[in-house]
Structure formats: structure tokens, C-alpha cells
Amino acid sequence: MGNHCVCVQNEMMEEDTSPTSVAMKSKKRRELKIKEKNNPKCVSSIIADLNSGVSSIPCIGGSSWEYRPGCQKNSGALGGNDVRKIAMRLSTTHSLKRLELISRGFGDEGATAVSRALRAPSCSTMQYLSISHNNITDTGFTDICESLRDSNNTLKTLKVDGNILGSASLAALGDTLCKNTGLVTVELCIGGGSLPVESSSVMSLGNGLASNATLRNLVITGEHGQARRGDCLFVGVKPHDIRELFSKLTENNTLTSLGLTFLLGGFEDGMRECMAQCSAYIMQTKSLTSLDLTGNLIGDAGGVAVATSLASNTPLVSLKLARNRLTNETFEALAKSLPTSTLKKLDLSHSFKHNSPFCMGPKAVSLKPGAMCLLAGLTDNTSLTSLNISDVAFEKDVSEAALEMLKTNKTLTELRHGDTTAEYATKLGGMISANQDLLATEAAARITATCRAQTASLDTDKIPELAWRAEASDDNDNENRNDEIPKDEPQDFVEVAFDDDDCYQ
Question: Which pLDDT belongs to residue 17?
Fold first, then answer.
């Protein structure tokens, strides 16, 4: 009986990893999200789902809207009383494992109701909770943290990004992590109250991370707070405090994925010391495999510090340094470190966007030398599989260098370059068609583009092995781009992208 179960499980896993199955699942998820946004569930519908014994309820509002007192709520809003009804039902027997109440605008009143439900024994089955984009402040999030600290050790994933959290929330999360033994993934944003957050709150979070042995994934972002305040130099946390956080993280042996994005805003005071401690953490950690520092404007001082640490034998395989005001100095440092690093995915997109408010300092900076040096260093690289240098250098020489590198590099399976010209696309397609070993993988190869008109210039009849996908530029496609291949599903195809990513919204 046991062997039979194993066989069935293996067959299911093999079926799920096929390109066709992955594509169908991705399409189905996108369709469900669009349907849910167009027709958000009402209270009676949610309770009916609970009564029917479902294990998952996606309850997504029309958009990531922000409700303020005096403003009219949209049709997808849930009031505090509505959420209390849902919470009362959750306090009795149910089979729910996953609950998403996203963009429903219920605020702290709803968050408090959810926190009370989490204390009920019946919620021991629930493992995933997302209450993103609901105007929750420190008051509501603190209540949830108290429930997770004192009563609930079975919830594994908590997502509260897109809310209005501040110092008290970081402190509450730190206290929770000291005692909770269930949480595996936490995502939250900073953007409420007095900013930057207080040093004592960051220290509390650091102490919690140092003592916690179960958390694997942590994302703290200031992106939504930055957009809400309309300030590209948004400072959610001071560099000095982030430095202390990295220092505390050296005592943690379980965290595998860390995202600290859009928090520093190019704050100069203490940035060099902060990134030096980040470099030390990368070299010392035995568990971290993914680090995302997008949008912090760390500059070359930070970029070089991180690049230098990659030369050490660390477990890090994914690094995102997008939108960080990096120039040739960082690119050249990376070119030196990559040959001996274990890194597989590297994102340097929008490093120095000339027409962006994120661009600080000299306006006329050519990243051509750095990009050429980086591509030349990848000729014989045997570890990197994904490189994103979109909106970095569009010169024809850089495109030619990319094509030349691909002739000998046998491990790179994803290249986002930014050259959307038909000439580059045609040459790239011809290379893949002529050389079956180039970018080899078990599944079909893909070329992506942001414009259907550009994809039409390629003769796909001559390249039958390519599975074609044209990404439309409308809002729905851009919004769901990251959901196309869910993180929990295998990504077993080659993706050679020459698209120019959308500007920061």
C-alpha cells in the first residue's frame, strides 16, 4: 500500500513538471484571479464556501486600492462587521487551509477580528493567510502578532504587504518570532506612522530573528509606502539600523530568503558601513540562498561590497540589485567575483535609469563598459543561469557581446537584455535554431518580447522548437507577469528575454 502511494505521488509530480501542465496551471490561476477581481466574493459567499468544506478561499478585491475616511468604498469592500462574521465562522469547525482577503479595505477592525479567529482551536488547520492591501495599521497587525505569539503555532505563511505599518509592527513581529514556532514565511511593508522606524523596533526584530529557528522567508518592503507618499527617496529604515539587523542575522541559521526592498532611499549617512555588514553576513551565512535589495539606491559603495562577498563560497544562488544606482564599478566587480561564486540568478535591471526619479548624480552615465565586462566574464561561467540587465545598456556593441557570449556559455538559460530590436531578435532566434546545444534544457525554449509587433518579425516556422509567448503591454498582463509561473511550481523551460521591463509605477 505504501509503495503504491509513492508511485501515485511520483506520477503526479512528473505530470506537474511538464511544460504543458505548468502553462495550463498558470493560465487557470490568472483566469481565477481576474474572475475574482471582477466579481469579489461577498460575506455570504465566503461563509457558504466555508460551510461546503473548501480548503482554499481566494477573496480578492477589484484592485490594490486605498480607502481613507470620507472616501466612498468600492463594490469589493468588506467592512469590519463583515469580517467579524467571517471570523465567527472560522472560530467553528472548518477545513480551510488557505485564506486570502486582499484589497477589501477592512482596516484594523477587520484585522482584529481575524486575530481573534486565529486563537480558536478550529484555525489550527489554516496554514496560509494573506490580508494584503487592507489599510491595516500597527494596531491591527499587533493584534495578529499577539495571537501568533500566544496561541497559534500552525500558521505557516502570513502576508500583510501593501498596508500602513510602522515601528510598532516591526517590534511586535520581533516579539512573535521569539516564541512562535510555526511561521515559515512573512511578508510586510513599511509605510505608516513616523518614519524612519525607531531603532528599538528594528533591534527587536533582529533579536527575534536571531532566536527563531523556523522562519525561512522574510520580506520587508517600503515600496507601497513609497508610492503612497509619492517620494522616491523614501527612507523606511535608517542604514545604521539595517546594519544592526544584518549583524543579528549572523546568529540565524535557518533563514533562506531575505528581501529588504525600497527601504533606504539612498540615505547616505551610514550606507557604506551598512553594506559592509551586509557583505559580512553574506560571507558568514550558511543558510541564505536568496537576497533581494531592490530599490535601496545603495550605489557603487554598496554594490561593490556585495559583489566582493560573492567570491567566497556562500550558499547564495539568487541576488537582486535592481534600481540601486549602480554603475560600471559594480559591474566590473561582479565580473571578477562571478567565476568563483555559486550564484545562479542575478538581477541588475534599471541600475541607473536616466529618465527616472531614482536616478541621482550625473545624468550622462554610460554603462556600456561595465555591461561589456560582465558579459565577457560569463563566456566560460558554469553557474549563472539567469541574468537581467534590462534598461542598462542598449548600445549595439552590448547586444553583439551578448550574442558572442551565448556562443560558448552553456549554462545561461535566461537573459533579459533590453534590446527589443528585430535585428537582435532575429539573430538570437537564428542562433538557437542552428545550435540545438545552445541554452539546452529538457523542456522547450521560449523567447519573450513586450510587443507583439516585434515578435511578428521572427519566422517561427523556421524555429519550431521555440514555444512562443508574446507579453502584451496592458495592465492585466503586467500585473500578472510574476504569477505566470508560480514559485511553488517547477520552472523547467528556457526563457531568453529581450524585453524592456516596465518603468517603476
Answer: 53
For 411, counting Cβ atoms within 10 Å of its Cβ (0-12 exposed, 13-18 middle, 19+ buried), the class is middle
**Cell 514555444, residue located:** 467
pLDDT value for 265: 81
Q: What sections of 119-230 are H helices per DSSP?
A: 138-150, 167-179, 199-211, 223-229
The CA angle 74-80-85, to the nearest 5 degrees, is 110
Q: How confident is the model over 156-176, as pLDDT tens digits?
A: 999 999 999 999 999 999 999
CA gap 505, 502 in Å, rounded: 8
In three-state secondary structure terms, 490 is coil
| Lowest-pLDDT range of 118-122, 133-137, 283-287, 491-495 | 491-495
Q: Give the closest residue to 341 by CA, choosing from 317, 322, 358.
A: 317
SS3 content of the chain, % helix, strand, coil (to 5): 45, 15, 45
Tell me the sheet residues that pair with 130: 100, 159
Beta carbons of 429 and 456 less than 8 angstroms apart: no
User: CA-CA distance, 87 to 81, in Å (whole number)?
Assistant: 10
Strand 445-449 with 217-221, pairing: unpaired
**Contacts (Cβ under 8 Å, ≥6 apart) of 205:** 170, 171, 173, 174, 177, 245
Give the confidence band of 61 by pLDDT, cuts at 50, 70, 90.
low
